[in-house]
Amino acid sequence: MTTEAPTIDLTGSRPRLRRERRVRRLFLGAAVTSILISLLIVGSLAGEAWSFISKVDLSSLWDLGWFPRRDMFDIKTVVTGTLLISLIAMVVATPLGLGAAIYLSEYARPRARRWLKPILEVLAGVPSVVLGYFALTWISPNIVMRLNPHAGVFSMAAAGIGVGILVTPLVASVSEDAMRAVPHALREASYGLGAKKATTVTRVVFPAAASGIMASLILGLSRAIGETMVVAMAAGAVGGSLFELNVFEPGQTMTAAMTALAIGSDQVAGSNNAFQSLFFVGLLLFLMTLTLNLISDRFVRKVREKY
Fold it and tell me: Residue 57: what are its φ and ψ, rounded to 5°?
């Protein structure tokens, strides 16, 4: 005679399951809300940008300079200024940030790392307006004017160096995390083959962390492109600017142009399309940063090493 095994209910406690469902719906709602907000932002930018394009003469988008009050919306002026300042910033941030990351990851003692890493991260929290004043009062007279005596107080070079200092902690922190994630077995294998410390860092650790390092540089570039206060204060062309390639001269950036238009002064004087151009520039800025993020994500997926 056989007896059937007793059935066991494995569904769990019903109150606990109800709580789990509520929590899942809460998180789903948060995710959907963030997506909707992003879509609304992009939609408002695209709608106002199209309204601006449909009202202005397209020839004004390729003119002598960016003077929105006079119906001169030269896109190449603000895009070129943004790229020049971002390039200067990355020239400053790349060696400083990677050098700090290599030291913290490979050379610093544990006690020194415990002190230096928080200090480096605190530097990332310095308000950009402080760095803007620093660029005007110290970087411009002590660095830029020594490189070019004919340079003025306001210049794209001073703004670029200031943005570079602002971006350095981001590059250093992300790169250091990427290098610390490289397994110690790779370092030990390199030492076992007779490699020196410098050779191990440059030939083993650095290539193994290449995806994270490149991601930090692209994140830094995106941060430099989107910086506002430093360029608005130090670049010297808030109201408008002629097209300029000389970094020792004042220049205009996309974020500084948006700042000038958003404060309200251009709504009450000059061209009626000046304020609407803010949305067009904002859409361009969004597309630039989105493209950089997509490139970064694709590159990281391509070269990522799995251990």
Answer: -75, 125
